[in-house]
């Protein structure tokens, strides 16, 4: 379950070198590009902030909650099992998922290597505003393409998915979660336990 989270963490960090590309015609979808850029600027600022690990982790937790639709992402990742889970399981799962994701992200601030995220444009895709971008490395010609999917919620814009080279991180994570549940008799509690064990391991490792 950690591979997707590690990949997104690195993307979050390199996004701090955001530069603007050509504007794309769309509704205020262009605002979604600014929204992603704003998130990226704040994320990268935490890398060099002169604060304690605990303070940085708290700040990053708030940042992720402000810019990502964590409850919505969590429900999507659980898929059809969200409907079969009890209310207590839903609550425990969302708590475990959110804590695990944010804790994993916040531990990996040292992976930033000067890469930059170039915004190429925005477009509408149904209810999503899609922000197209490229990761550019300062030491090679290698590039990676990714898209940020943003929606408008009651609380404002929120990021709900990142698609890397055509692969949706949410869909991939959803498949991993489903596999854990299916391999344990369809029990959502098995996923909750796995997330909690992973969280315990992260904490015990001193991160």
TrEMBL record:
Q: Is Signal one of the keywords?
A: yes
Q: Which UniProt keywords apply?
A: Signal
Q: Give the range the annotation lists for the signal sequence.
A: 1-28
Q: Which domain of life is it from?
A: Bacteria
Task: Identify the Pfam families for this entry.
Answer: MlaC
Name the record gives this protein = Phospholipid transport system substrate-binding protein
Its source organism is Thalassobaculum litoreum DSM 18839
């Amino acid at each position: 379950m950690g591979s997707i989270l590690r990949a997104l963490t690195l993307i979050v960090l390199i996004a701090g070198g955001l530069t603007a590309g050509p504007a794309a015609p769309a509704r205020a979808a262009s605002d979604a590009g600014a929204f992603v850029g704003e998130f990226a600027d704040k994320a990268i600022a935490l890398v060099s902030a002169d604060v304690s690990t605990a303070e940085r982790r708290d700040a990053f937790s708030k940042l992720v909650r402000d810019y990502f639709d964590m409850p919505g992402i969590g429900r999507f990742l659980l898929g059809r099992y969200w409907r079969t889970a009890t209310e207590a399981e839903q609550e425990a799962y969302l708590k475990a998922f959110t804590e695990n994701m944010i804790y994993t992200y916040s531990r990996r601030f040292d992976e930033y290597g000067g890469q930059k995220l170039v915004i190429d444009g925005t477009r509408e895709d149904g209810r999503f505003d899609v922000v197209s971008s490229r990761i550019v490395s300062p030491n090679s010609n290698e590039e990676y393409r990714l898209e940020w999917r943003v929606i408008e919620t009651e609380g404002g814009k929120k990021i709900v998915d990142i698609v890397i080279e055509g692969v949706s991180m949410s869909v991939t994570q959803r498949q991993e979660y489903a596999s854990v549940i299916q391999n344990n008799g369809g029990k959502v509690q098995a996923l909750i336990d796995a997330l909690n064990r992973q969280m315990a391991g992260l904490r015990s490792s001193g991160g």
